[in-house]
Structure to design on (209 residues):
């Protein structure tokens, strides 16, 4: 039996380049009644721990290291003794939030993470940040896109360490090549599908942002 997906929304702030904004973040919990992973430990470690409960927390997987996606990661990791996983290209961002604490292990393109008998494959999808990743779980017909792809277009690229041509290439080559029915579970806001977003790639490129 495949793992199931649970969804939690937490609220807090995102700060970068001298600005701060109020944000709501999607926290995704993947697993079964025994063990889970948490994708993006955002804002509220207590709320996430309440959702995890007494289950084994196999890992905290960070799609990228903007502070709103990792601010609760150390507290959650300490509570469960779980490792924090991050692509090393995002350490420059991680260190702005947690300078005294390093992630426990590196994410790399092609790495596989297994929980409750279900495998998620790491896709390096830079652009929103250098080390941004997506997590593809074909058994669940889902890709967790972090802030790389949203309903309606790419993630933001107007701040430090981001790049619009890079995010477009990541989406075109790594995400829009997945089956059309694949559900895209995003870092903020509503889900979408690969099939719903793929026809709009040229529009995004024309807009240039």
């Amino acid at each position: 039996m495949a793992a199931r997906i649970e969804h939690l929304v937490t609220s807090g702030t995102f700060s970068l380049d001298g600005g701060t904004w109020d944000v709501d973040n999607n926290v995704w919990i993947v697993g079964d009644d025994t063990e889970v992973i948490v994708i993006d430990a955002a804002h509220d470690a207590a709320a996430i721990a309440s959702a995890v409960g007494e289950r084994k927390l196999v890992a905290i997987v960070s799609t990228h290291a903007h502070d709103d996606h990792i601010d609760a990661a150390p507290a959650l990791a300490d509570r469960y003794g779980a490792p924090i996983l991050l692509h090393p290209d995002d350490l420059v961002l991680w260190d702005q939030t947690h300078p005294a604490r390093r992630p426990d292990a590196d994410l790399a393109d092609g790495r596989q993470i297994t929980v409750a008998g279900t495998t998620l494959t790491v896709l390096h999808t830079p652009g929103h940040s250098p080390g941004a990743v997506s997590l593809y779980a074909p058994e669940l017909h889902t890709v967790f896109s972090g802030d790389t792809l949203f309903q309606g277009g790419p993630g933001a690229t107007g701040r430090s360490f981001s790049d619009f041509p890079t995010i477009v290439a990541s989406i075109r080559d790594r995400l829009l090549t997945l089956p059309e029915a694949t559900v895209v579970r995003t870092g903020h806001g509503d889900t979408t599908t690969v099939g719903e977003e793929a026809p709009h790639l040229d529009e995004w490129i024309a807009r240039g942002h």
Q: What stands out?
A: The helical segments are 45-52, 67-70, 73-80, 91-97, 164-175, 194-197, 201-207. Residues 164-175 form the longest helix (12 residues). The radius of gyration is 16 Å.
